[in-house]
Write a structure and sequence with these properties.
Helix content is about 75%, strand content about 0%. It is an all-alpha fold and about 325 residues long. The chain is globular and about 60 Å long.
Length: about 325
């Protein structure tokens, strides 16, 4: 048991160091973003400048997550580390409705969490929206706000952090990775919402072992948010609200209908599947670290620095939003 606790403490330290590097890369990205924004302002009518600046910022955002992944595996030389699983398992005839139900139920749950988030923090829930004057701007925004974040964030938090915490306990892995995912946003108005989304995506990963399905859910959620903001820009607010509400109801309905169809076909014995417990033990793992020991091991010096840094940034953003209001 002592050896497993030692390994878990080492893992928490490596994860914390990687997340501290992520903060550093975020700061570099933020400086570059401001510079690109000034460049676009200086050349407002030059389309290629805006496209090049947006693509450059998207590349930097992706690199901000890829670099920590490389650093993690560099720090893990000579230690046990789970490689990122990029394998693809396409749904077959009897799992198609299960996949669809997971996709839409997960998306619906995250959307519901966003409403609860707005209710909990009504004054600071809005992070603003980007003005879209031309169709190409919508494409750029979908790429920078949906495609890149979905891949980059899932790669680090589900593909690396969750996958490496998994052998020490699936429930702990889901909760810790979700908490770190929420802290990563370093914004109080997004913390609860992002943490819930992290739990949902973590459960999906545990249930399916599919990083690509997590990326798809993340992408669909971000894309839906971009499209909702766009609808509010091109349609009167009252009608836009109705359109978005109907779209959300469709998402819930498709998810529940797919889940019902899957349950009925499974009940009729048309297919069987190997059951795996989401919060059960991993194959070959018999000695998990106890909960109170996990909490003590989690707060290693590097993790304390990361948590304090994230909380300080949350307070700073909150005060800035309060001052702006």
């Amino acid at each position: 048991m002592y050896e497993r606790e030692k390994n878990l403490k080492s893992l928490f330290t490596r994860i914390a160091v990687v997340l501290l590097f992520l903060i550093l890369f975020f700061n570099i990205y933020s400086i570059a973003y401001v510079g690109c924004d000034l460049l676009i302002t200086a050349f407002p009518s030059v389309i290629w400048v805006e496209c090049a600046a947006d693509l450059f910022c998207s590349f930097l955002y992706l690199l901000s997550f890829l670099a920590p992944v490389w650093i993690f595996y560099g720090l893990s030389q000579g230690k046990e580390a789970q490689a990122v699983d990029f394998s693809v398992t396409l749904p077959c005839s009897h799992t198609f409705f299960k996949t669809i139900s997971i996709l839409f139920v997960s998306l619906g749950t995250i959307i519901a969490a966003s409403y609860l988030n707005s209710w909990l923090i009504p004054s600071f829930s809005s992070t603003g929206s980007v003005e879209i004057d031309h169709p190409y701007q919508l494409v750029l925004l979908m790429f920078s706000s949906a495609v890149i974040p979905a891949f980059a964030e899932e790669l680090l938090f589900r593909g690396v952090i969750l996958a490496n915490l998994k052998p020490f306990g699936k429930g702990m892995a889901v909760l810790v990775s979700a908490l770190l995912f929420g802290l990563m946003h370093m914004n109080l108005s997004q913390f609860f919402y992002a943490t819930v989304a992290g739990v949902v995506l973590g459960l999906v990963y545990m249930a399916t072992n599919s990083l690509w399905l997590c990326i798809l859910i993340h992408f669909a959620n971000n894309m839906f948010s971009v499209l909702e903001n766009y609808v509010f820009q091109i349609v009167p607010s009252q009608r836009a609200g109705l359109i978005c509400m109907l779209a959300e109801l469709v998402i819930f309905a498709v998810g529940l209908l797919s889940a019902l169809i899957y349950w009925l076909t499974k009940k009729q014995g048309r297919h069987t599947e190997r059951k795996t417990a989401i919060f059960g033990l991993d194959t070959g793992v018999r000695n998990l670290v106890e909960g109170h020991r996990v909490a003590k091991l989690f707060f290693c010096p590097a993790m304390i620095v990361y948590v304090i840094s994230a909380v300080v940034n949350m307070v700073y953003v909150l005060l800035a939003q309060y001052g702006a209001s």
